[in-house]
UniProtKB/TrEMBL annotation:
Domain Major facilitator superfamily (MFS) profile as annotated: residue spans: 21-425
PANTHER family, sorted: PERMEASE-RELATED (PTHR43791), TRANSPORTER, PUTATIVE (AFU_ORTHOLOGUE AFUA_6G08340)-RELATED (PTHR43791:SF36)
Keywords: Membrane, Transmembrane, Transmembrane helix, Transport
Protein's recorded name: Sugar phosphate permease
Membrane topology note: Multi-pass membrane protein
GO cellular component: membrane
Coarse class of the protein's main subcellular location: membrane
């Protein structure tokens, strides 16, 4: 990468100013999204009246309700972010989902849980796609891989914190009322985030008082040149019909199906395969996240150096496929199965930052705002499929083996579709 000293200084400013805050916000976001996984393992659904033989299926449906709602406002909130910026929209989103998460700590029956998860999905909808679009206007093509990586590293880091928080809460308060305190604590974190994001973030580069006029001009020039050279120069309506955008939706759908099948059922699968308590499985859940976080550092460095996002994304999905399939095959050997299950986390949790660089690099600003919203909305319906499929198969077979095999298949399909993308490096 060839930068002038001035551009390099601007890049460091933007990286240091924006990415730690976005990273923190995503940690909070992911904690509020997957805290259900620890509550499930602690017997939450039995506590609120779900029949024991259907608890896994009901829990999967509850998790899926989030993603049904999550898909609804995506394209339109991203178009709004393109005009008014992210701070107002994110402040509203964090406020709503913080309150909803706290209320989840007081839930008394399954219908209430379904309703709260649905409204949580609506509240969280603007965040991820909005941030992907935000990074696309604040960082040039050469800078974006690292910026995406810092942001998406929040997933495994949130998993680490989530396991530590859940394990500590369950150790002190036991499974019940521990899972209730878990939701309340993490909902409060979302509310605390609101004043922080409002102070630290700037909506658009032109609004940033912490950038000099020349630094803004350098960034505007870099983004403008990139816009002119992007292969897909279409309006947002045409972008939604683009061949590659449709493939991105499919890749993201199958990848997310594996991702949320894994994250929602991770503590329960560890408990089932290793025969440990909810507190112990919460702590053990940290290990796959730690391995994924370390791997992400090396994968991102290679991604930016090689620039070959498409083939790298395929290899990442293949690691997830192989690790999951072999973990299910060796389920009768708990230690080996856990090691392989942990290796699969490298693929499960690291595909996101590499994947998202492809539509960011291919689409112009207006097309990207809508297309990224569409990809995130429809792709995240995999969050409906993954938890229900894994939970439903467990209720049917009384084992997580079939569910782990299904996640392996979804990861492989996502990898193969990636090879069909035309306009990607």
């Amino acid at each position: 990468m060839s930068y002038s000293i001035k551009v390099l200084s601007s890049y460091r400013k933007r990286l240091i100013r924006l990415t730690p805050m976005l990273f923190f916000l995503y940690v909070v976001n992911f904690l509020d999204r997957v805290n259900l996984s620890y509550a499930i393992d602690a017997g939450m659904f039995q506590d609120i009246g779900a029949p024991a033989n259907l608890a896994s299926l009901i829990a999967g449906i509850a998790s899926a309700m989030f993603f049904v709602a999550y898909a609804i406002p995506q394209v339109f909130t991203n178009l709004k972010i393109n005009t008014i910026g992210i701070r107002k929209i994110f402040a509203l989103a964090f406020g709503l989902w913080g309150i909803i998460t706290i209320l989840t700590g007081f839930v008394t029956d399954v219908p209430e849980m379904y309703a709260l998860r649905f409204f949580l999905g609506l509240a969280e909808a603007p965040f991820y796609a909005g941030t992907m679009f935000f990074l696309g206007i604040w960082f040039s093509k050469e800078e974006r891989g690292l910026a995406n990586g810092f942001f998406n590293a929040a997933i495994p880091v949130a998993g680490i914190f989530g396991g530590l928080i859940a394990g500590s809460v369950f150790t002190v308060y036991h499974d019940y009322p521990g899972w209730r305190y878990l939701f309340i604590i993490e909902g409060i974190l979302a509310l605390i985030s609101i004043p922080l994001l409002y102070v630290v973030l700037s909506d658009f580069p032109d609004d940033a008082k912490w950038l000099s006029k020349s630094e803004k001009e350098e960034l505007d020039s870099s983004i403008l040149n990139e816009e002119k050279n992007k292969p897909t120069k279409v309006s947002w309506r045409a972008a939604l019909r683009d061949h590659d955008v449709i493939l991105y939706v499919l890749i993201y759908f199958f990848g997310v199906t594996a991702l949320y099948g894994y994250t929602i059922w991770l503590p329960s699968i560890i408990s089932s395969f290793s025969h440990v308590s909810a507190a112990e499985s919460s702590f053990l859940s940290d290990i796959p996240y730690i391995v994924a976080a370390i791997a992400l550092i090396f994968i991102l460095r290679y991604s930016d150096r090689s620039g070959n996002r498409k083939i790298l994304t395929f290899y990442i999905f293949f690691i997830a496929f192989a690790g999951l399939a072999l973990s299910a095959f060796t389920e009768s050997i708990p230690d080996l199965s856990f090691v392989l299950f942990t290796i699969s986390a490298i693929g499960i949790f690291t595909f996101l930052p590499v994947f998202w660089t492809m539509p960011q690099e291919a689409l112009t600003r207006e097309g990207a705002s809508a297309a990224i919203g569409l990809i995130n909305a429809l792709g995240n319906l995999g969050g409906v499929a993954g938890p229900i499929i894994v939970g439903g198969l467990e209720s049917l077979t009384h084992s997580f083996v079939s569910g782990v095999y299904s996640m392996a298949a979804f990861a492989l399909i996502a990898g193969l579709i990636t090879l069909l993308i035309k306009k990607a490096r």
